[in-house]
Write a structure and sequence with these properties.
By secondary structure, the chain is an alpha/beta fold. It is built from 12 helices and 8 strands. The protein has a domain of about 100 residues: Conserved hypothetical protein from pyrococcus furiosus pfu- 392566-001, ParB domain, CATH 3.90.1530. The chain has a 5-stranded mixed beta sheet with strand order 1-5-3-4-2. Strands 6-7-8 form a 3-stranded antiparallel beta sheet, with no helix packed on it. The longest helix is centred in the N-terminal third of the chain and has 39 residues.
Amino acid sequence: MAKRRRLVAPDASTLQELEAGFTAKPSLGPLETKSVVPPIAQVAGEAAALSGMATVTDRVALARDQGDANRWRQAEQAGLLVQLIPSDGVDQDFIRRDRLGEDAEAMAELVTSIRLHGLKLPIEVAQTDAGYGLISGFRRLLAFRELAATDPRFAEIPAFVRSAAAGEMAYVSMVEENEIRANLSHYERGRIAVLAAGQGVFPSVEAAVDKLFAAASKAKRSKVRSFAVVHEALGDLLRFPTALTEKSGLHLASALRGGAQAQLRAALDGAEAKDAKGEWTLLHHALQGAIEAPRDTSRGGRPQQITRIPERVLPKGGVLRAEVTADGLRIELKGRVLNPDTAERILQLIARQIG
């Protein structure tokens, strides 16, 4: 009878050897170096690896999409994206227009061009509570509306939508476009400066001219100011203002500064000139004998800083001017005759106002 072997509990070192043996990956044979991996584990590992690669690819694509979206939003906020907007939803009188009239023949050519070839340059609008306000592209908008009456393809017009309201840049944009595409007349330049200043967009006509025609020479801006004087004094009576030549406009401005407004308005009031030549004949006769303001021919020295206050045309005739200098305020009334008592009351009002 065999002798029974007595079992002895393994010590700690023996248990560690057994555990290491169990956790070791089995091989197919002594010459096989590739470990045996269960099929399900291999499939799971490959799927995890592919998933990791897909995640990286997705992250790159997501980052690119986010970057594109940010650039898109920035361009949209800056008004650099072209959007299709309803042509009948644009307020064409959002700001005062610089052009007084449109050439019917040129307008017909524009309509035909847009019908055949489409719109090459989008209009420019500002977002408003009621929809959109036109900044530039007045003729293109009118052409689209005319075409939309018979063709629904033109119901929407391409536009740059700006976030700015009817401020300085709106007027600057309008004037710049018309100066480049179709040169404004001398009178239209002066007129839009007066209108912009009158709406409070600029503090004065001087400031409006400097801002709207910043690219023009100093001499050209001086001429614009002269035609602004003509518009302020005679704009409501002139029937053919855009026909005024540079020479005639400057002559009128000089006479107006010299106090000839009453004579010129009297010549135009009630006289229905049939054409530009007839209107200028009336003005020329009124200018005969008018005293023009003397010109300052002095040269040299530092120019005095003068801030001119927008002129006020009085309902009963005459124009009121004022300018602030470094050492005082100068007020001038032209074209009206005041007696000493009225002048004294005016001075008393001013004294009480400024204390």
